[in-house]
C-alpha cells in the first residue's frame, strides 16, 4: 500500500508483469514484446533492483538500459583540516 510497483520478468525476458496496489485491490499489468527481449537489469545474486519511474517506463517500452548513474551530485563529506602551524 506504499505505492511500490513490483516487476516480474520471465526467463526468456519477452514477457513482463507489473503488480501494483490500486487502493481496492491488486492489479497486474502485462506486456509481451513481439521482437527482442527486455533488458537484464539484475545480477543472479538475488539483489533487489530499484528503478525510478522513468527507468521503469523505458524498461517496459523495451529500451536497453545500461550504465545506470545517479544524476544527483554525490553528498560532500565534511573533514577537519589540520594546518602545519598547529603542530
Secondary-structure topology with pairs:
Layout (H helix, E strand, L loop, with lengths): L4 E5 L5 E7 L4 E7 L20 H8 L27
Antiparallel strand pairs: 1-2, 2-3
What does this protein look like?
The chain has about 90 residues and is mainly beta. About 10% of the residues lie in helices and about 20% in strands. It has one domain (about 5-70). It contains one helix and three strands, in the order E-E-E-H.
Strand order of the largest sheet: 1-2-3
Strand fraction: 15-25%
Percent helix range: under 10%
Biggest beta sheet attributes: 3 strands, antiparallel
N-to-C series of helices and strands: EEEH
Number of helices: 1
From the N-terminal CA to the C-terminal CA, the straight-line distance is: 58 Å
Shape: elongated
**Structural class, please?**
mainly beta
Task: Output the keywords.
3 strands, elongated, 87 residues, 1 helix, mainly beta, three-stranded antiparallel sheet
Structure, briefly:
With about 90 residues, the protein is mainly beta. The protein contains one helix and three strands, in the order βββα.
Amino acid at each position: 500500500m506504499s505505492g511500490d510497483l513490483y516487476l516480474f520478468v520471465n526467463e526468456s525476458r519477452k514477457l513482463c508483469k507489473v503488480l501494483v496496489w490500486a487502493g481496492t485491490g491488486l492489479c497486474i499489468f502485462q506486456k509481451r514484446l513481439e521482437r527482442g527481449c527486455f533488458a537484464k537489469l539484475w545480477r543472479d545474486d538475488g539483489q533487489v533492483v530499484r528503478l525510478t519511474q522513468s527507468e521503469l517506463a523505458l524498461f517496459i517500452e523495451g529500451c536497453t538500459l545500461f550504465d545506470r548513474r545517479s544524476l544527483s551530485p554525490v553528498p560532500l563529506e565534511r573533514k577537519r583540516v589540520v594546518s602545519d602551524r598547529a603542530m
